[in-house]
Write a structure and sequence with these properties.
The chain contains seven helices and twelve strands. Strand 7 and strand 8 form a beta hairpin. The strands form two sheets. The protein has a six-stranded antiparallel beta sheet, sandwiched between helices. Strands 7, 8, 9, 10, 11 and 12 form a six-stranded antiparallel beta sheet that branches.
Length: 257
Amino acid sequence: MGLKWDPSKWEIHRLYSKHSDLRKLLPPTSILTPSSLSKYLDKYKSVYIKGKNEHKGSGIIKAWKTEEGYRYIKVKGKPVDVKSIDDLYEQLRGGRRSSSVLVQRTIDVPMIEGRPFSIRLMLMRDGKEKWHYAGMLAKVAGEGSVVTNVRRGGGYATTIDDALAKSLGYGRERIASVKHKLISDGFKLIRYAGKKGYRSHETGIDLGIDRKGKIWIIEVNLAYPSYKLFDRLEDKTFYNKIKSLAADYKKRRTKSG
């Protein structure tokens, strides 16, 4: 297959759709067409519209049905109402090629003070090419934002323990169990990608947990994952571990190169 430095969201979705267990973690996702949009809005409470190659919450739109028609919000703005599905489709496509845009079922996530959150899990290789769990945190959306990307939506970072306790009322043992499952799923994701020829040395995986406690894959960043957000946590353990692993890998690669 060759090297894959920055595969698209659709490519990643198709990759994991072929895995019997991992595909259960994927929210229903399709290429945006008038037909797929209509089908998803008939079946689901709301949908996200995402560019296949856009990252960091760029251009994400949330859309849903209303009694009078349809409504959507782009990233963090005022809701816009339209009457017909054709008008909605054109607005969501925004002049882009339809094949470059995805429609995805939204996850019914629990809230922290009325704001949704997602989880960022970091896995990294050391200088000996061994994968390590490097840390995880919760990204809480900014007020009125439909995305949990902090830079884009104006939210904040907190610990997983804090997020699960506040949103779902989980106690210490339940939180520990969830974290164990998140890390386990993360290693399954990266190992399957490696098995299929997707070379990576640091991965940022965005995950969601719904109100029933089910884990969902939001995005798998096999290339250039950002980890600056970990520096916003009061405890710098994860941030320091990430920097240490990155330096170790770079040092070893420099020597071997």
